[in-house]
Amino acid sequence: MDTKAEYGRWLERAVDDPDLIEELRGLDPDGEEVSDRFYRDLAFGTGGLRGVLGAGTNRMNIYTVRRATQGLCEWLAASGGTRSVAIAHDSRIKSDLFAREAARVLAANGITAYLYPRLEPTPALSWAVRYFGCGAGICVTASHNPAKYNGYKVYGPDGGQITLEAAARVQSAIDGTDPFDGVKTADFDEGVAAGLIRYISDKCLDDFLDAVQGLSLSGGAEDLSVVYTPLNGSGLECVSKILSRIGVKDVTVVPEQEEPDGHFPTCPYPNPEEREAMRLGLALSEKLRPDLLLGTDPDCDRMGAAVPEGDGYRLLTGNEMGVLLLDYICRRRIELGSMPENPVAVTTIVSTDMADSVAAEYGVELRRVLTGFKFIGEQIGLLEAEGHGERFLFGFEESYGYLSGTHVRDKDAVNASMLCCEMAAWYKKQGMTLADAMRALYEKHGYTCCGVKSFAFEGEGGMERMAAVMDSLRDAPPAEIAGRAVTGRTDYGTGEGVILPLPRSNVLEYRMDGAKVIIRPSGTEPKIKVYLSSRAGSMAAAEASNAALAEAAAGFFA
């Protein structure tokens, strides 16, 4: 792409958003900033679009959103899908604007847009797609990324993120669409008057909450005290309502993080995985001493928790919460007589190996899929296609995503918050905290320490450098890592060593005695993630092993 020429074209044509014009006028036409903004189009990956807000083809703005929506319209037409699309948005900067712009493009193409009238969680979008029988869904969110990002997730008619094949076809349609001359747009108010833009009623949301409540396993958690933070995102309404429904009355919301705010003023990275994001919640918990601290990310599909331990509070990892919930669900379903025949749980290739041991204890088949909750959702669809959707028990991924029902096809922090509270209340009646419960699981199933390190590759050459690193590891795989011999290797990209029937993915796995390293480029950000796992006779030994693996892995990217 001729970056300077494209910059000039945008300066002339991007007049629908004054913020963009002002931004463009402040740039040096010959500077690196113009090159970074225009050297490529923002890629439409398996999760849709995600990028930094701003002017340019490599940025999130109304033109990249319109263009993506036009491509989605053309895919719907070509695939014969139902000509309706559900839309939701979170609290991020311009999320509401992007949602309206998407609705305008849909309406102009004769496609009905069902639009939530206010910000709502991502799982509520997945629900709405199935509720209205839509051909697709759009959720405007960048999940847990910093405030400078926004994104555009696309869902298929099953309520799950679109398949790899569908994403490729949408990308092909986008490639042939000019952002200025190739996109149809309708007047928003005229679209509403014509019935092509319809606001989603509160009944849809209430029915979503009914479906979540229907997954309750305890019948109540009245004695539980909770501190909750929505991290200035979209979770407050639904999480508050579901906790009230199961009897949790003692809920204190972190005041600085209660109201929606896309600038996320209290934390640079609004992710419940990060201690900094939970800092205010932890401080309030130290003061109020609740049984549980809950946090949800801006689009409320991820849930994190902290529990009392000693004089303070311990943040549970995503893997720990996953095995705690898996164990709890199995225990309670057996106690209640509701455990299905041939139950199935699903997790990912990068999630803890403890899940295998817990599942085996209860006679549950554990299926492992590629990273991304869409692949867990696909397993639900396969079970339903066989006429046995009831076999699905639970799905989780290490990145704080959980789902215990078939009501949606994505991770659901509303569902997870309810289950976590019920689980904490159940253990409380036995005189145990969730920290006590986790220690018991470690003692039974072995001490497994899991971690993840990220290595960023910013700038115009970032993607090329990432590809070079992966090629180098394929061409010259390490024989040892941190002084430990590599005894097994799996290349999910070429299929080498893959046992499960999985799609090809650019992921490398190295196994050592009692340890594992998995290397995976992010599908949405210019970074490579390294997943570390060590099993030992004590947590201290497992942590020391992981530290050594992390230091060795850093050498791959030196």
From TrEMBL:
Keyword Protein biosynthesis appears in the UniProt entry: no
| EC annotation from Swiss-Prot or TrEMBL | 5.4.2.2
Task: Look up the record and name the cofactor or cofactors this protein needs.
Answer: Mg(2+)
Supply the name of the protein: phosphoglucomutase (alpha-D-glucose-1,6-bisphosphate-dependent)
Q: Where is the Alpha-D-phosphohexomutase alpha/beta/alpha domain?
A: 43-176, 220-309, 318-444
Family stated for the protein in its record: Belongs to the phosphohexose mutase family.
Enzyme class, broadest EC rank: isomerase
Q: Can the keyword Metal-binding be found in this entry's annotation?
A: yes
Q: Which Gene3D superfamilies match?
A: Alpha-D-Glucose-1,6-Bisphosphate, subunit A, domain 3, Alpha-D-phosphohexomutase, C-terminal domain
Which sequence ranges form a coiled-coil region, renumbered to this chain? none
**GO MF entry, a single one:** phosphoglucomutase activity
Which keywords describe this protein according to UniProt? Isomerase, Magnesium, Metal-binding, Phosphoprotein
